[in-house]
Write a structure and sequence with these properties.
Layout: E1 8-14, H1 17-27, E2 32-34, E3 44-49, E4 52-58, H2 59-65, H3 70-73, E5 83-87, H4 91-100, E6 105-111, E7 116-122, E8 128-134
Parallel strand pairs: 1-4, 5-8
Antiparallel strand pairs: 2-3, 3-4, 6-7, 7-8
C-alpha cells in the first residue's frame, strides 16, 4: 500500500528533450522544467502535478544505461496501449497550434456527451494524449 507522502512517477523515453519541451511547455502550456541532476545522471525534464510526476528522459541516455532495452525502444509508436489524459485551458487555441505545427491528430476537437471538450493527438514521440477541458456552462444572462 502506498503511503501518503509517496507519489507516482512515470518515465517516458523521448528522442529529443528540446522537441519534447517545445511540445509540452510551448504548445500545451504544461508545467515542465529541466530537472536538477546529480553529476553523471542523465539530463531530464520533469512535470509535477498533484502527487505525481512525469519524467522525460532522452532515449540515447536510456539505451546507454540499459542496452537491453534498445530493440524495444526502436518500436514505433511508443506507449502502445497507454493513453495520457491532461486537463488543459484554452483547448481551442491548443488545437489550432497542434494543426499549425502539423502534430498528428487522432480525433479533432469535439464536445463529448459527458461535458468535456477533447482532442486526441500523438506527441512527437508517438505517445497518445487526450487533452480535456470542461465545457463551460453559460450563466443566465451571459452572451
Amino acid at each position: 500500500m502506498a503511503h501518503d507522502n509517496q507519489k507516482v512517477s512515470i518515465q517516458l523515453t523521448v528522442a529529443d528533450l528540446e522537441t519534447t519541451e517545445a511540445f509540452y511547455a510551448g504548445i500545451l502550456e504544461m508545467p515542465i522544467r529541466h530537472a536538477l541532476t546529480a553529476p553523471g545522471a542523465p539530463e531530464h525534464l520533469l512535470m509535477k502535478m498533484d502527487g505525481w510526476e512525469l519524467i522525460f528522459v532522452d532515449e540515447s541516455e536510456v539505451i546507454q544505461n540499459h542496452p537491453v532495452l534498445e530493440e524495444r525502444l526502436q518500436e514505433i509508436p511508443k506507449g502502445v496501449g497507454m493513453t495520457l489524459h491532461f486537463p488543459v485551458e484554452d483547448i481551442e487555441g491548443i488545437f489550432a497550434a497542434l494543426v499549425e505545427e502539423e502534430i498528428e491528430i487522432l480525433y479533432p476537437l469535439q464536445v463529448m456527451p459527458y461535458g468535456m471538450k477533447e482532442v486526441w493527438c500523438f506527441d512527437p514521440d508517438g505517445y497518445l494524449l487526450v487533452l480535456e477541458e470542461p465545457v463551460r456552462r453559460k450563466v443566465q444572462g451571459e452572451k
